Please model this.
Amino acid sequence: MALYPYTLQPVALNLTEAEFHQAQYELFASASPSFGLSSFKTKEWIIMAVVVVLAIAGLIFVTGYSTIIFWLMLVGVVIYLLARTLGFKWYVKREFDKQVADQEMPDEMRQMKLGVQKHGLVMAMPSNQPDMMKNSQMRGMQMRAGATQQAVIPWTSIKSWDETDDYIFMMFELKGQQGSQIVPKRLQAQKFPIDTIRQHLQEVVPVKGLNPENVQPPA
Model:
């Protein structure tokens, strides 16, 4: 195995409520059909091109009130473009807001620190967090006592992962417990080895894409 940079000590996650929802939205949007111009199929471009050419030809060779239909054809193409881009983007955002309206960021993520080691992702929390172990994501992990409590998610326990421009997401199963973790890529500015995380994830799960069904339910 090649040598990758690792952390000497865990780095504060400092995830905010706004980032938590932004991360969820980016993941939701990436899983949704594309709403950019690149999402248009060749057939759609051909149809729109034919309509535009006919409309322009009509405006050139036809005069009087009959040109209204050709103006309507051009307006129709513009409306279709807006509906398939900005309109669909608005629809995706509305559906996302409906799904996460009642979701709040878990309290433990506010004080969590992350480290990257050859054997796995290190999660560290202040030891004076009595409610932390009640969280289903933390149960089943062996916590090492001290000024902070630490748990390790072995790379081999990762079942699926994905990434957007700003975040890496991973789902894992450890001792019958399911969990997930969000890693902001902005941590790279603090010399947090994002590339090392990606490398280890690719080694255990070569194909990106979150697949909750691959995580077996706890017995």
The beta strands are 11-12, 113-117, 120-126, 148-154, 158-163, 167-174, 177-184. The radius of gyration is 25 Å. Helices lie at 17-31, 42-61, 68-100, 194-204.
